[in-house]
């Protein structure tokens, strides 16, 4: 599939692209938090069996990512759009099985439902994030569309976080899950219909299809995925330990957790327009690195807060939420630029596979973050029933993520693909497609040798 050459995107096109992110994010809290509790407390399955079945379903999900991405590199037009439809038709029965398990076959319902939901979600998510490379060749327009997409995704997360509040007015866990499914299906069907109806499907360029080993040789992609993975672990560790930190370190009640989450996500949403504006003037890799440095500087003090230091933690939530806005918008735009460079460098199509690996790295980061956070906390001898503030919890919660972010920053140090390089790449790709490619390059805006022959030793 090839990039579309148009550079401008209308507001309508941006909204049609971005709005499906909202329903895609709504099941998040339900699937990750409410569902395991539902199967243990209301269905009666053991916690160990629930955990095992969810892990097995997730393993199959991760394996499917590169296969789906590889397949997407071989399709175009109606087949590309059909992938969304197939994904949707898998998600709906998957959610239904998860929410309505038969008592005698609850384990089968959990495993089959999770597998169908994960596979369907992946069939939607990978072509969805890949589509950004075909909407526009202009880096700023891509960042703009991604910022809208991630903003709507945050709104979906906030709606997801609000769903458990239905329990306060008498809803059972199953009723909450049914409400989630109803909202997700209705909004998802409507917004995906607009996406598929009003945006042109990607068209494939007349170039050879990608090969697996070419991706390994794309050192820019390897570096970027590594930085994204480590940064994802850094973001995931506090997410896993956040409920315990609020109660065991700050000494708050569980009911106060929602306030801090709301502040964090509102700060992230509010920061998106600023990061978008800055991306027009400054290199996105530089801005992302600055955002991670800002997050590190703001998060270190969280290791030394004491019970009652809520005002300081609110300030930390605002600053780190502001930095998180850069995590949401800038790396995805950089990945799209790396996909353009990959097409220029190897003269093959790997876009779907690259974004599938990116998606897989996101899932791996969440799993590794949970494993590290909970494993280290268990080794430290943490006692959730203790009334004494836990120093080990505070250190793991605040300092360990900073280590991963610093390593991510170092990986991105002197990352050679900058805004002006990308503009040159797009022009050269256009010249190649039209048959007027000049291997000598342009004097006014060349693609430097460090990019075209890049091996990043």
TrEMBL record:
InterPro entries: MFS_2, MFS_trans_sf. Gene3D superfamilies: MFS general substrate transporter like domains. It comes from the Bacteria. GO terms for molecular function: symporter activity. Belongs to the sodium:galactoside symporter (TC 2.A.2) family. It comes from Nitrincola tibetensis. Residues 437-457 are annotated as: Disordered. Keywords: Membrane, Transmembrane, Transmembrane helix. One of its GO terms (cellular component) is plasma membrane. The lineage of its organism: Bacteria, Pseudomonadati, Pseudomonadota, Gammaproteobacteria, Oceanospirillales. The chain crosses the membrane at residues 14-35, 47-67, 79-99, 105-131, 152-171, 177-199, 220-246, 258-278, 285-306, 312-330, 351-374, 394-413. The keyword Membrane applies. One of its GO terms (biological process) is carbohydrate transport. The keyword Transmembrane applies. This is MFS transporter.
């Amino acid at each position: 599939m090839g990039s579309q050459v148009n550079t401008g995107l209308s507001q309508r096109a941006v909204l049609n692209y971005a709005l499906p992110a909202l329903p895609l994010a709504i099941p998040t809290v339900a699937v990750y938090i409410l569902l395991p509790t539902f199967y243990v407390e209301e269905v009666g399955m053991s916690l160990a069996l629930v955990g095992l079945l969810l892990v097995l379903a997730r393993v199959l999900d991760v394996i499917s990512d590169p296969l789906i991405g590889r397949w997407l590199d071989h399709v175009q037009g109606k087949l590309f759009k059909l992938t969304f439809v197939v994904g949707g038709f898998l998600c709906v029965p998957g959610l239904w099985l998860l929410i309505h398990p038969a008592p005698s076959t609850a384990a089968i319902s959990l495993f089959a439902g999770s597998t169908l939901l994960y596979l369907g979600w992946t069939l939607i998510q990978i072509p969805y994030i890949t589509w950004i490379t075909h909407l526009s060749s202009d880096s700023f327009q891509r960042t703009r569309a991604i910022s809208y997409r991630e903003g709507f995704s945050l709104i979906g997360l906030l709606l997801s976080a609000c769903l458990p509040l239905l329990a306060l007015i008498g809803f059972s866990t199953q009723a909450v899950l049914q409400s989630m499914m109803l909202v997700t299906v209705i909004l998802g069907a409507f917004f995906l219909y607009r996406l598929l109806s009003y945006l042109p499907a990607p068209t494939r360029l007349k170039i050879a299809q990608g090969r697996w080993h070419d991706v390994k040789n794309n050192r820019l992609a390897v570096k970027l995925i590594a930085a994204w993975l480590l940064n994802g672990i850094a973001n995931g560790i506090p997410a896993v330990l956040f409920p315990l930190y609020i109660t065991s370190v700050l000494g708050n009640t569980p009911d106060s957790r929602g306030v801090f989450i709301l502040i964090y996500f509102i700060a992230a949403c509010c920061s998106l327009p600023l990061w978008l504006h800055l991306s027009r003037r400054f290199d996105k890799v530089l801005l992302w690195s600055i955002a991670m440095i800002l997050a590190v500087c703001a998060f270190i003090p969280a290791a030394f807060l004491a019970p009652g230091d809520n005002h300081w933690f609110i300030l930390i939530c605002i600053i780190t939420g502001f930095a998180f806005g850069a995590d949401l918008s800038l790396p995805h735009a950089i990945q799209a630029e790396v996909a353009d460079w990959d097409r220029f460098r190897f003269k093959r199509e790997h876009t779907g596979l690259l974004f599938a690996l990116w998606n897989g790295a996101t899932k791996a980061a969440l799993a590794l973050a949970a494993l590290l956070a909970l494993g280290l906390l268990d080794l430290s001898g943490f006692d959730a029933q203790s009334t004494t503030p836990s120093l080990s919890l505070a250190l793991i919660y605040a300092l360990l993520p900073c280590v991963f972010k610093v390593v991510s920053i170092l990986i991105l140090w002197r990352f050679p693909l900058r805004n002006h390089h990308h503009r040159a790449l797009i022009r050269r790709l256009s010249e190649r497609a039209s048959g007027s490619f000049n291997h000598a390059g342009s004097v006014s805006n060349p693609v430097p040798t460090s990019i075209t022959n890049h091996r990043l030793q």
